[in-house]
């Protein structure tokens, strides 16, 4: 994981929520379906949230499920601090464990019932490392535990992908001049890959038959069950 990615989140943590506020309707829609994906979880579920950022997914899940506990794994201290502040305001600190670092530095403990990685694995640009990213999550889940993962995905080489990308840039108000640079970033700092390639990475990462449950523009989301014992 390039440290400059984390430094970028450190630098922009204070303004992160405001910067992405225009995308809130997409996040709300993703969250709505995610709630149903996680419906089979028990009332006392323990959820691992990798790349928790400023806490968007945890705050929404915590509100709907008062018995759930959360472990937030986040390498950027400033992003985690923003989340901690919001968790205090909402009175859910006692249900959260805040871990500043990557998943490999989280102490081993009881297996989690479910995990989220929302808009995180796209920053792991090497495909082999991305498989390891998911395998590390799979190892922290109980057998059959649920993963929900979302990433920017697009087959940028296909005609349909190119057209979708233009719609995405329009929605994000990316100027015509900035689009070539944005495309270069999507091929380097952020690994935007075809959705089918993500299906394979999730399976190779230890999850059974991923289901694509959401798409809005470039944001795609999958759920899958941990299947390490089945191998
Ligand atoms: C785009 S933000 C998404 C945050 C939050 N999940 C959300 O949807 O609002 C990505 C977050 O993942 C973190 N991150 C990047 N690479 C990571 C990795 N390998 N493991 C854990 N977190 C990572 C970043 O520091 C950043 O806070």
TrEMBL record:
<feature type="domain" description="Methyltransferase">
    <location>
        <begin position="47"/>
        <end position="145"/>
    </location>
</feature>
<dbReference type="InterPro" id="IPR041698">
    <property type="entry name" value="Methyltransf_25"/>
</dbReference>
<keyword id="KW-0489">Methyltransferase</keyword>
<dbReference type="GO" id="GO:0008168">
    <property type="term" value="F:methyltransferase activity"/>
</dbReference>
<protein>
    <submittedName>
        <fullName>SAM-dependent methyltransferase</fullName>
    </submittedName>
</protein>
<dbReference type="GO" id="GO:0032259">
    <property type="term" value="P:methylation"/>
</dbReference>
<keyword id="KW-0808">Transferase</keyword>
<dbReference type="Pfam" id="PF13649">
    <property type="entry name" value="Methyltransf_25"/>
</dbReference>
<dbReference type="InterPro" id="IPR029063">
    <property type="entry name" value="SAM-dependent_MTases_sf"/>
</dbReference>
């Amino acid at each position: 994981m390039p440290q400059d990615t984390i430094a970028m989140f450190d630098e922009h943590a204070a303004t992160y929520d405001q910067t992405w506020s225009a995308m809130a309707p997409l996040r709300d829609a993703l969250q709505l379906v995610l709630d149903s994906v996680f419906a089979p979880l028990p009332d006392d579920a323990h959820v691992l949230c990798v790349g928790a950022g400023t806490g968007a997914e945890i705050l929404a899940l915590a509100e709907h499920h008062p018995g759930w506990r959360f472990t937030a794994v986040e390498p950027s201290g400033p992003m985690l601090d923003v989340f901690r502040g919001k968790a205090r305001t909402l009175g859910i600190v006692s249900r959260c464990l805040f871990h500043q670092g990557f998943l490999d530095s989280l102490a081993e403990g009881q297996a989690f019932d479910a995990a989220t990685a929302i808009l995180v694995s796209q920053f792991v640009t090497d495909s082999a490392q991305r498989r390891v990213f998911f395998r590390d999550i799979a190892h922290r889940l109980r057998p059959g535990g649920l993963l929900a993962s979302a990433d920017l995905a697009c087959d940028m080489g296909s005609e349909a992908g190119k057209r979708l990308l233009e719609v995405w840039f329009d929605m994000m108000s990316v100027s015509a001049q900035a689009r070539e640079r944005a495309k270069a970033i999507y091929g380097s700092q952020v690994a935007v890959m075809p959705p089918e390639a993500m299906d394979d990475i999730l399976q190779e990462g230890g999850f059974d038959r991923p289901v694509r449950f959401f798409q809005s523009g470039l944001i795609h989301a999958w759920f899958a069950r941990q299947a390490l014992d089945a191998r």
